[in-house]
Amino acid sequence: MSVDPTPAELPPGLLAEYRESAGTQLQVLAGLADRLVAAGNDAEALDLLRQETHKIRGSAGSYGFWQASRLAAGMEETAKDWVARPNDADLDRGSVAQWFVAQLADALQLEPPAAGERSPRATEAAPAPPPVGPRAGVPEVIVVEDDPALAGLLEYGLRARGYRFVTFRNGRDALDALLALDVAGQHPLLLLDVDLPALDGYSILETLTRERPGQYRVVFTTVHGDESEQLRGLEAGALDYLVKPMSLRVALEKIRRWVGR
User: Would strands 165-168 and 189-193 be described as parallel, antiparallel, or unpaired?
Assistant: First the structure.
């Protein structure tokens, strides 16, 4: 479970100085996003994006903006993948970067940059998710994640790739819905956070294994990436493990394989 404190109790002058610095970083990131809209394989822009997200990841947490820090951590991992494979066909990099800038501004409690914040292309890259219901079919992916930064990143990628998905932030709410869902013979992929409010991921999997055996394919997501934790998850019946912070590119590729697209 993630609990964000308010920004650290700092002298007003020091916090104001950081906000000014963060605003400048947002302008830089917005400019890089615009460059990636124009050319998604711009190697210099990709490497600068990696560097800037690394800076935000460290500085934001130091000032108490933990959601911004986690959001930057996920984007940094994604940028590393982009740097390593600049010419790979991938999710629209410019749109992802623009989405990141807008979300980061909100997490830092700053106004988004006037230019490069978002564009029609960015909006088109992430259409509204298909409705989930009796007529629309069973969701392909179910995300149970209380961290709004990570949940938002995953939701963006899933929308852009056209997946049917639903998201839950609370373990008890998720379990109630999972037990009631008629999967119609399908086996949705369940991305399940280990540390959740109300009910943890292991308890959810234990109940599903007992009451809905074989109905869901479960992948744990957690910051606890040591060997013993991963083995615990696999021994509990999980298909695999995703360790945070995760790259959006890698997560989407694994989801594609798990879902069977």
Answer: unpaired
**Of 46, 59, 56, 65, nearest to 25 (Cα)?**
56
Neighbour-count burial of 232, counting CB atoms closer than 10 A to its CB (0-12 exposed, 13-18 middle, 19+ buried): middle
Cα–Cα distance measured from residue 213 to residue 206, given in angstroms and rounded to the nearest whole number: 10
CATH number of 12-124: 1.20.120
Residue carrying structure tokens 């109790």? 9
CATH number among 3.30.565.10, 3.40.50.1950, 3.30.70.870, 3.40.50.2300, domain 128-259? 3.40.50.2300
Report the sign of the C-alpha dihedral through residues 29, 35, 37, 42, in that order.
negative
- The number of angstroms, rounded, from the C-alpha of 203 to the middle of its chain's C-alpha atoms is 23
Length of the chain: 261
SS3 165: strand
pLDDT in tens, 204-221: 999 999 999 999 999 999
165-174 tens-digit pLDDT: 999 999 999 9
DSSP-H helix ranges across 39-147: 43-62, 66-84, 93-107, 120-125
Q: Where are the alpha helices (DSSP H) in the chain?
A: 12-38, 43-62, 66-84, 93-107, 120-125, 148-160, 171-180, 201-211, 227-235, 248-259
Which H helix or E strand runs over 220?
strand 217-222
- Please, which residues have CB within 8 angstroms of residue 60's CB and are 6 or more apart in sequence? 22, 66, 68, 69, 72, 107, 108
Cis peptide bond prior to 245, omega within 30° of 0: yes
Which of 115-124, 181-190, 230-239, 246-255 comes out lowest in average pLDDT?
115-124
